[in-house]
């Protein structure tokens, strides 16, 4: 895409700011994993003045891929019961999505994923029972591989939010978002 996604504008705020505001409406704490352009990301989110609910964690291995950022975030969230794992390129999910999504928490499961018309999307709720499995796995692994392990007990929540497929990777994707 050639642009730094976390700071792209969506409805007058950056992607990061949009997502952080919505997460803060349903989460006790928001952990933002940084890597490339760490200072710019932190300064941008600090403009929200929600510092008491936000923790920044630097992923020194960010060049190895997205999975290392998840591992870094889960390590920082080790005292949490559940983590809502969110990508930065999904700023269009409405606040109602998050409020409805967290109502799906059920301790019979350790992985809760939204679906729309029977196709799964993101973000994902991950229970603490999976944190060690994810953090102790090789960085070359993917979350998709983890999801296939027998220890993962999945719940799919059929929702009304097509935005769970949002994935802003090109200029065309970004133009459609606006």
Brief digest:
This protein has about 180 residues and is α/β, with parallel strands linked by helices.
Which characteristics define this entry?
globular; alpha/beta; 178 residues; 7 helices; two-stranded antiparallel ribbon
Low-confidence spans: none
- Describe the global form: globular
- State mean pLDDT (0 to 100 scale): 93
Straight-line distance between termini: 16 Å
The ordered H/E elements are EEHEHEHEHEEEHHEH
Per DSSP E runs of 2 or more residues, the count of β-strands stands at 9
Q: What value does the Rg take, in angstroms?
A: 16 Å
Strand content: 15-25%
Roughly how much helix do the residues carry, as a percent range? 25-40%
**Broad structural category:** alpha/beta
Number of helices: 7
Largest sheet properties: 5 strands, mixed
Note down, in words, how this protein is organized.
There is one protein chain. The protein is an alpha/beta fold and 178 residues long. Helices cover 31% and strands 20% of the residues. It is built from seven helices and nine strands. The protein has helices spanning 15-24, 38-46, 66-76, 95-102, 131-135, 143-147, 171-177; strands spanning 9-10, 13-14, 30-34, 54-58, 82-85, 111-116, 119-120, 124-127, 154-158. Strands 5, 6, 7, 8 and 9 form a five-stranded mixed β-sheet that branches. α2 (38-46) links the parallel β3 and β4 (54-58). The longest helix is centred in the middle third of the chain and has 11 residues, at 66-76. The radius of gyration is 16 Å and the shape is globular. It starts with 8 loop residues before the first strand and ends with a helix. The model has no long low-confidence stretch (mean pLDDT 93).
């Amino acid at each position: 895409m050639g642009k730094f996604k976390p700071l792209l504008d969506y409805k007058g705020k950056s992607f990061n700011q949009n997502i952080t505001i919505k997460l803060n409406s349903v989460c006790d704490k928001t952990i933002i994993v940084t890597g490339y352009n760490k200072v710019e990301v932190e300064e941008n989110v600090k403009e929200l003045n929600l510092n008491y609910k936000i923790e920044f964690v630097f992923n020194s291995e960010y060049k190895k891929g997205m999975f290392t950022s998840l591992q870094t975030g889960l390590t920082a969230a080790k005292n949490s019961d559940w983590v809502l794992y969110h990508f930065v390129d999904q700023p269009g999910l409405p606040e109602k999505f998050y409020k409805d999504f967290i109502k799906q928490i059920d301790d019979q499961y350790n992985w809760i994923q939204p679906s729309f018309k029977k196709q799964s999307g993101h973000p994902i709720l991950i229970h603490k029972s999976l944190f060690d499995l994810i953090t102790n796995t090789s960085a070359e692994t993917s979350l998709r591989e983890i999801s296939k392990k027998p220890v993962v007990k999945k719940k799919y929540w059929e929702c009304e939010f097509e935005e769970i497929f949002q994935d802003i990777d090109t200029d065309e994707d970004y133009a459609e978002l606006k």
